[in-house]
Every structure is written in structure tokens, then in C-alpha cells.
Amino acid sequence: MNLDLPVIFGLVEQKDNGIYLCAIVDFLIKLHNEFLDNIIAIPIGKCEYLKFLEDLSWNKLTPKTYFIIPKKVDQAQDNNFINYDWDDKIFKYNQRNLEIEDDKNLIFDLQKIEMKLAKKLIHNKVYFEMEDNQFYLKNFSFKHELFYYSPRILFEIKKILPQEPISEEKRLIILALLDPSKSLYNSSNSIDLPEVISLFETILCFIKELSIKHNNILILDLIDQWLKLMRYDITYADILKEFSLKHIISFYELIEEQVANSIIDKIDEKFKTPLTQQMKDSIKNIIDYDDSENQNQQRIPAKAFAFALKRFIYRFLLVDFNIENLNLNTYFLDFTLNLWSDVYEESVEKLFPTCLLVSHAYNSYNFIVEEIEKTMNERQNSRRGKYKKHKKYTS
Fold first, then answer.
1. Cα–Cα distance between 280 and 35 in angstroms, integer?
2. What is the pLDDT tens value at each position of the chain, 395 positions in all?
3. Residue 33 contacts residue 27 (beta carbons within 8 Å)
4. How far apart are CA 219 and CA 196, in angstroms?
5. What is the spatial distance between Cα 301 and Cα 183, in angstroms, rounded to a whole number?
6. Alpha carbon distance, N-terminus to C-terminus of the chain
7. Of 126, 94, 116, residue with least CA distance to 49
8. What long-range pairs does 282-289 form, CB within 8 A, spacing at least 24?
9. Do 72 and 128 form a contact (C-beta atoms < 8 A)?
10. In contact, 256 and 338? CB cutoff 8 Å
11. E strands present in the chain
12. Shortest CA distance to 357 belongs to which of 387, 321, 319?
């Protein structure tokens, strides 16, 4: 392994060239486990140097057995793996001088050799278990594949880690920091949004893997403890101050929205099927463009629908899923995917268009955004017209 080799040799995935690396890992771990199986097959009491493996069961009626700790590969330490090169020093446990070539009658101290080999090959070793994917290693999460492997990760985190929304005031500050061009302040520090979103995806994975339940832990403290902050560009660390894990999902979705704006156009063409007029009409009939708090509960808020579509495109369509011919409602009526915000679920279940496929998601999003802009322009023109009319009669 060196820096000139292709990246694929440093990654493990059960497809393309990664299959060969997976096969090598699979072979080596099976060799490791088979050796331990052979050790366990030795009758109890036949080797006194295996006593440390004997099961200390409280039930004296059951026969003693050897016990080796089972463990997943990603949880193992270096000393859990059998890693042994033959050492000629093992021959020092004999009663003849090996340098004398014609000395054939060697007598070895087998007990000492057994003790050394048991300590080197068996002590602290573990029996490796397979993951749920029937491989010894978990799938490697590539860019944009967080939701491929964990589509409900946000829902699962909410269950174990109570969440709170970010206040509107702080939300605007964060948006200004994420997009300095819209800030009232001239910021010389440009923030690498793809790096920030990658950092947050890593945090989400850590929270899920470790089942972190304390939502008052500061985000910066978690980064410092688990992710080694020095690995990242810390110029954007100021935006994380004062925020704890109870804000992690709101923070993630805020960053995700900014990243998605510049990247969702890059999805495969198979996800860009044009809408028919019937589809456009079906969307229009269920959308509410009123942005006030008194929204029509019998319709789906336009902005909420657009946000949900944007999230879906970013999370599920930037990798090559073969889902273009599935009904879009398969995903949008599954509220554990955390696509919706600020909607009445009953309205979505009742009104969501059944004619839309996943391949229509991109153009549905663009259509709704265009309709929102058109409605806003019409309202502005209407206000200008009323203002001119009022001015005419009052002047």
C-alpha cells in the first residue's frame, strides 16, 4: 500500500474493485476464526496454558468450556488480531546448541513453548462476528450515501436525543455566516460548505453509533472528543458556539439546504422526467401559497413541499439509486424519513399526488419554486397597482 495506488485499495465496498479487497478481508478473518475454533476443540484440561479461556460459569453442574470473546471488526483493538511471524528464538527452549550442525538429538521444553505460543497467539484474541450485511466490515459510506445506508437516521436520532429548533434570530446569523455574500458584515473567512456538511454527517453517525442521549453536550465538545477537530478547517468553528446536540438536526438541515442549492442540478438525467399538464394541475390543486400562520390546513404549504422535495433529491438522488420508476408517495408518505417540516401529516396523506414518480421529483421541485415566485410577483404587482390607484385619488 502506498500513495501512488488507486484510492479503491484503501476502501472497502461490496462492488466493483472493492469486491477483491472484501474477499481478502473475508479470507483472513475466516482463517483467524478457524484457528480459534481449533483451539476451542482441544479438550478441557489437556493444555494447562489454556486455563485462562475456561468458562467461569456459576453453574457447577454444566461442564466447563472454553470461552473466547466475540466482537465486531470495527470494535477490535490491534492486540485482538492474530499477527504472528515465526521467531527462531523459540528454539532457545532446547537442551542442545543449534549452531552445531551435526547435533541431531534435540530436546525441547514443550511446556515453555506452549506457554509462549498461547500468550502470543491466543491471549486477548477475539472471535470476529459478521455485520448485518453478512460481511465482516460495515459498508463504507461514500459522499452523499449517508441516507443510502441510514435513510431514517434523523428520525432515529430524534428518538434517543431530544431536539429543539434554532431560534429565528440565530438562524439568520448562521445563514449569514454560511453565505458571506448575503451578510451585513464583510467576512474574509469563506466557509467550505461541503466540508461542513461532511463534518455534520460524521457527527450524526457518531450519535447513532454511540447512542448519545445527552442533548446538552456542546457540538464543539463532541467534535473535540470524537472527531479530532484538528483534522478539519476550524475557521468556521465560531458558528458552532453556544449550540448543543439538541440543535444538531436543525443545524444539519440548515447547512444541507445551502449545500443542496448548488448541487441538486447534478443528479442523473433519469430523475429529470418532464411533468405533464395533468401532473402540474394536480400539484397546483393541493398547494397553498399563503406564507402566513393562517395556512389552509386542507392544502400543503408550497414552501414546505419545495423543501421536502429538495431534501429528497439531495439525500436520495445524488447516488445511482434504481428507484426512478417508483411512486414518489412511497417516500413522501413515510414520515420517518424526516422530509417534511411544518405540515399536517393528515393533509399530506390525503392530498399527495399519486401520479408522480421519483423521476418527477426534480421537475416538481422546479415547478413549485416557479409557482411560488410567480405568486410573489403577482402580489407585489397588485400592491403596486393599489398604491398607484390610492396615490391618484389622494393627490
1. 64
2. 566 766 666 667 777 777 888 888 889 999 999 999 998 888 888 888 888 888 755 556 566 778 888 998 878 888 899 887 777 776 676 665 555 565 566 666 777 777 888 888 888 899 999 887 778 877 766 777 889 888 999 999 999 999 999 999 998 888 887 775 554 444 445 677 888 888 888 889 888 888 899 999 998 888 777 655 445 555 566 778 889 999 999 999 999 999 999 899 999 999 999 999 999 999 999 999 876 555 566 899 999 999 999 999 999 999 877 899 999 999 999 999 999 998 889 999 999 999 999 999 999 999 999 999 999 888 888 777 666 655 555 55
3. no
4. 13
5. 28
6. 83
7. 116
8. 282/353, 282/355, 282/356, 283/353, 283/356, 283/364, 283/367, 283/368, 284/371, 286/351, 286/352, 286/353, 287/368, 287/371, 289/371, 289/372, 289/375
9. yes
10. no
11. 70-72, 127-129, 287-288, 300-301
12. 321
The set of cell numbers assigned to 302 is: 408550497
In the block, cell 393533509 appears at 347
